[in-house]
Design goal:
This protein has 367 residues and is mainly α. It has 15 helices and no strands.
Length: 367
């Protein structure tokens, strides 16, 4: 599996640099007045292409290497590889098209990600079989179509959740690496080498992207990268819980709670203000951290100061994400413990958000 991860890393490393150079001029067409913009100058937003190429190379090496006489010990046939490719290719494709055109409405991106979920159910057999909730599991057992619908919902929604937290250099990428490594660890614990290999390849490809994204900010993942991360992680998570009943479904929720709760809380916040849930704003937690916790940097020019401040934002949120990822890895079999940590994370998130909004942040967080 390490050989697969190595190839994914190298291909992503080279591909991201290549697409950055190819789309350097196109970056000048990106709007400069968007609320999510926290960088100086024109930066290409097509890093997701390189991540996708890196992950797909690792994916297709699994069935190809045994055909060439080298067995990597990972069970994956051509049909399954084609299914994973179709799902990832769809979400990556619509995201990249939005990155280069800025002409794809949110509703059509949702439709495409939902179609990717349908493809995962059809081609890979993805299905939510249990939720560790009394009565609900019985209902899912008698009505499998409900489990299929839940799988489609998860695979359709998570790409947009990752897109929501993709705001600063290294943030979404680092969270993806931690989540992918957590999935690989649990997959190995239950003996699922296929999902472990796919998770490791995703982490390696993302690391190849991060070389250029953090701290230099030379290229961004864009919608394509965020959608790819969310779509692939959603499929792996659904299949992991489905194939191995010993893995609690609350492991999946706690592991992904940072992007999921950020999306849910942002939708609620906009709804209470009478705005559409899909409207972009500058009131996400990572944006508040940037403006109110991270101090302005003394640099020789504006661009360097903005970059330095941008880079100091991600560690705050990555640290926050570890408060859900680490307990999920430690207690992946214990539903009561996972539920308790889910509640603690939500309460802690809301308390932190309110402290920052009300200018009551402790001094140690501002240093």
């Amino acid at each position: 599996m390490l050989l697969l991860a190595f190839f994914s890393f190298v291909v992503a490393l080279v591909s991201v640099l290549w697409v950055r150079r190819q789309f350097r001029r196109h970056a000048a067409h990106y709007p400069a007045d968007m609320p999510q913009r926290f960088h100086h100058g024109s930066v290409p937003r097509v890093g997701g292409v390189g991540v996708g190429l890196g992950w797909l190379v690792g994916l297709w090496l699994i069935p190809v290497l045994p055909w060439l006489g080298r067995n990597v010990g990972v069970p994956l046939d051509w049909v399954e590889a084609a299914g994973y490719t179709a799902v990832a290719g769809l979400v990556l494709g619509v995201g990249v098209y939005e990155d280069v055109s800025q002409r794809v409405p949110v509703r059509w991106r949702l439709v495409c990600s939902a179609l990717a979920g349908v493809m995962a159910v059809w081609l890979l057999g993805a299905q939510v079989t249990h939720l560790a909730l009394p009565g609900v599991d019985t209902l899912l057992a008698h009505w499998p179509v409900l489990g299929m619908a839940l799988a489609v919902l998860a695979i359709a929604g998570l790409p947009h959740a990752f897109n929501l937290i993709d705001g600063y250099n290294g943030l979404a990428g680092a969270v993806t690496v931690l989540i992918a490594l957590a999935l690989a660890h649990v997959s190995i614990q239950v003996g699922d080498r296929q999902l472990a290999a796919l998770s490791l390849c995703l982490a390696a490809a993302t690391l190849g992207f991060l070389v250029w994204n953090y701290p230099g900010g030379l290229v961004f993942a864009g919608d394509g990268g965020a959608y790819l991360w969310g779509g692939v992680i959603a499929v792996i998570t659904v299949l992991l819980v489905q194939r191995h009943p010993e893995v609690s479904p609350w492991f999946a929720l706690l592991l992904l709670l940072y992007p999921v709760w950020e999306t849910a809380f942002s939708s609620y916040r906009r709804w209470t203000r009478g705005r559409s849930a899909g409207t972009a704003d500058a009131l996400h937690l990572h944006q508040l951290v940037y403006r109110r916790l991270v101090r302005a940097m003394l640099e020789p020019d504006e661009a360097a100061a903005l970059l330095a401040r941008n880079n100091r934002t991600a560690p705050y949120l990555v640290s926050l994400a570890t408060f859900s990822i680490v307990p999920a890895v430690l207690f992946w079999q214990s539903t009561p413990t996972l539920v308790a940590f889910c509640v603690l994370f939500v309460v802690g998130y809301v308390a932190l958000y309110l402290m920052i909004v009300r200018f009551k942040t402790p001094g140690w967080l501002r240093r």
